[in-house]
Amino acid sequence: MRVAFLVAPEGVEQIELERPWQAVVDQGWQPRLVSTDSGEVQAFHHLDKADTFPVDDVVGAAGPGDYDALVLPGGVANPDALRMDEGAVDFVRGFLRTGRPVAAICHAAWTLVEADVVRDRTVTSWPSLATDLRNAGATWVDEEVRVCRAAPGTLVTSRRPDDLDAFCTAFVKEFGAGPAAAGPSAEGASGEESSAEESPGP
User: Is 45 a known active-site residue?
Assistant: First the structure.
């Protein structure tokens, strides 16, 4: 399974990249760091610069069909930059519209709002995004993780770095259970309409 991690060239919260990345590696899956520019991305510890990470794939040269699932790490500046990039927004939208699962933590939900993929879904996020998500048609809940399986694609969301254990446990379960497990050739498996949601944990 190939899992895309979409981040902006600067601003991703490092722990929200590294911990989910390791969870993917631990499953024997292949993580790929995707950004809007080639080269390296600059991660942060809150407001302080942290490490840099090499970009594997660039939005535009790669699309949702090249991967089985998508992880959106947070950091305030990271999703704020992504939601201003039309290619990045289309990249995110394409996963859910073709039935590929997506996992987003903390401020990453801003990119989901811009992609218009939260309408009629139940989600969580960093609390300051609650109004934005409600205005975009979502039901916002204050939970460590929320799994929304409304068709066509599963969406896993969490609030903050403290929720990373629950977040990683949930998205690994969902990524491994759905059509994504069959690989990128399994195009557009939309599944049945469902309102089922549950909370489970480079």
Answer: no
Pick the catalytic residue: 107, 146, 159, 160? 107
Measured at the CA of 169, the angle between CA 35 and CA 48, to 5 degrees, comes to: 45
- At which residue do the structure tokens 């500046």 appear? 77
What the block records as the tokens of 183 is 């690989």
DSSP character at residue 138: P
Proportion of the chain in helix, strand, coil states, percent, rounded to 5: 35, 25, 35
pLDDT per residue over 11-34, tens digit each? 999 999 999 999 999 999 999 999
Greater confidence, 190 or 95?
95
Q: How far is C-alpha 105 from the geometric centre of its chain's CA atoms?
A: 7
Interatomic CA distance for residues 121 and 151, integer angstroms:
10
| Alpha-carbon gap, residue 145 to 90, rounded angstroms | 25
What predicted TM-score, i.e. pTM, was given to this entire model? 0.89
Q: Is the pLDDT of residue 197 over 90?
A: no
Contact 67, 32 (CB under 8 A): yes
